[in-house]
Amino acid sequence: MSKDIKSVNYGLEKIFEGAQDFLPLLGTDYVEFYVGNAKQSAHFYKTAFGFQSHAYRGLETGAKDSVSYVLKQDKIRLVLTTPLNSKSPINDHIVKHGDGVKVIALWWMMRERLIKKLQAEAQNHIWNQLWRRTNMAR
Fold it and tell me: In 10 A of CB 120, how many CB atoms?
């Protein structure tokens, strides 16, 4: 069985010559979880995984719709958010999907270039869709 296992070296060489990364990501800024009880979840992450409190947003800071705890461990930041109102979109999301990740915020370089590139791609896509619909209608 061990003879069938091959060691694979995944290098940093480009698969396609001339290929460029149009979205040069530098890392993850934070991950936001929508949870039913942010205070309890924050306590769990701190005691079980060693995260430390970094920031808080809630009634005491003027937020009336939700409470958020920001936890940090080295370069990892988690935002645990819970709704204060049963009619909020956050609560609707939790009722429908349960506790889970809602936002993954990424760091990238050259923001303006990225936005222009994505807008151009979106316009090309929309134009192609309209062109197809018009030609199919003929």
Answer: 10
CA distances to 67, 124, 127, 128, 129 from 135, in Å: 51, 16, 12, 11, 10
Mean per-residue pLDDT, 93-122: 83
Same domain, 76 and 116: no
118 plus 73 within the same structural domain: no
Number of domains in the chain: 2
d(CA 85, CA 91): 7
Residue keyed to tokens 């349960």: 98
CATH number for the domain that contains residue 40: 3.10.180.10
Task: Tell me the one-letter amino acid at 138.
Answer: R
Check: CB of residue 11 under 8 Å from CB of residue 94: no
pTM assigned to the model: 0.67
